[in-house]
Amino acid sequence: MDRFDAMQVFARVVETGSFTKAAQTMHISRATATQLVQKLEARLQVKLFSRTTRKVKVTDTGAAFYQRVIRLLADLEEAENGVSQAHGLVEGRLRVDVPSPLARMILVPALPAFHQRYPGIQIDMRVSDRAVDLLDENIDCVIRGGPVSDQSLVAKRLGELQLRTYAAPAYVRHAGEPAHPKELEGPLHRVVGYLWAHKNLHFPYAMRRGAELVNIRGSYALAVDDGNAYLAAGLAGLGIVWLPDYMAREQVARGALTRLLADWRLDPMPLHAAFHPSRRRSAKLHAFIDWVSEIVSTVS
């Protein structure tokens, strides 16, 4: 039995709560995953899981063993990374999930420079704004705007995105230009709603001018959960939108969007990379995170 393979499978079963999910994320059969854990239990002469037809639960002994296993796996990865880095190599497959506008407008166009710096890193980039289960979906890290609510993850702040208020010229001609944010709560105006992934709700925007603070929710005819769709709705004149500078800059330059309420500001949106503690020592992950932080600092 390869103890390393068995410990990897054991750790993934603990993290996903399922032999089936663990096997899927590791690209092996469920039978293979089950056999490896059974052989590990036989070697240790302990029960690592209590199994029923409905669920798998780690035992107290298994939970204690898991803490040691993840340290061992992390030390092994760090040792391998140390050898690679000593020869100037950071390599491997990296699975990330990033917001669609950030991928399309910022990260993908800049990737040639990243691959020139790290030619050995292969990136699987999923593009979405939805909530992601990192362990269940075998994702190394996600990049998201706003706070990271999952306390089981490690979050690294990449920077801040400045938000401003915009609308299409056609919308302004039809509804008029608001002089105060409170007008956005009235019957003449509509906003485009954004459904935040962690709650699937449209949250109010806090707008400030000096000591004055107004929370604006507004009424909407359309709410979306994707950044590209949100921008498209604003361009189509479906309502007022709040956009980070990098999304609005080109549209304003070509006259497709008009900035509104310029004397009011919004709190910057923090941008985070989040990953499971078991990935904490991954050199390729930190190379990617540091690079994204560099790129964000040039556009925010």
Briefly say what this structure is:
The protein has 300 residues and is an alpha+beta fold.
Description:
- There is one protein chain.
- With 300 residues, the chain is α+β, with helices and mostly antiparallel strands.
- Helix content is 41%, strand content 26%.
- The protein has 9 helices and 16 strands.
- A 5-stranded mixed β-sheet has the order 4-3-5-16-6, with helices on one face.
- Helix 1 packs across helix 2, helix 1 (3-16) crosses helix 4 (60-86) and helix 2 (19-26) packs across helix 3 (30-44).
- The termini are far apart.
- The model has no long low-confidence stretch (mean pLDDT 87).
- It comes from Halotalea alkalilenta.
- InterPro entries: LysR-type_TF_proteobact-type, LysR_HTH_N, LysR_subst-bd, WH-like_DNA-bd_sf, WH_DNA-bd_sf.
- One of its GO terms (molecular function) is sequence-specific DNA binding.
- Keywords: DNA-binding, Transcription, Transcription regulation.
What descriptive keywords fit this protein?
alpha+beta; 16 strands; elongated; DNA-binding; 5-stranded mixed beta sheet; 300 residues; 9 helices; single chain; LysR_HTH_N; 3-stranded antiparallel beta sheet; 3 domains; Arc Repressor Mutant, subunit A; D-Maltodextrin-Binding Protein, domain 2
